[in-house]
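Working notes for the structural subgroup meeting. M.R. asked for a predicted model of this chain before we commit to crystallization trials. I am recording the input and output together here so anyone reviewing the notebook later can reproduce the run.

Input as submitted:
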Amino acid sequence: MKLVERVMGAAFEELDAEVQALHRGSGIRSGRIDVHTAPLARLLGFPPSAKDAMLWFAVREEDGKAIWMRQINDRELRSEIAQSGAHLAERMNAMTVISEPVCEEGALVLRPLAMRAFDIPLPRALWPKVTTREWGEDGTYRFSIELRAPLTGRRLLAYEGWLSPEPEG
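Returned structure, recorded in token form:
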């Protein structure tokens, strides 16, 4: 049983089949992605804005953690996802987000519960507004992630796209 399935328990079975397949699988998948990156997000290591960019995605489990590698055009983005009690802790660059994974109408939605920057807890007033959704559509895994600035509501980072249904050979 892989990480997200362990954390969600029986609720994992309510997710769209495409989402279950991605979180139970391993290997490399390809797809397309649209990315909007504000200057602050670029400084934090996120890839530049791009429309209909090539996406390579690889996932593997290592020491109980899920290692996600994304390559958007020529830029790599890595995150480590671990279990934190009944929640998920995703570390990407200097940020760690503790989230509650829930199923909403077949989609996997991550609800942020805590955030850290450089391992320092952030007060809720400084959290960016994070919206994360993964779902299946016509046999394809789809995703949408958006971060907005806490005080102004300006978009800091957004990406959405799809991945092939099966890992590459």
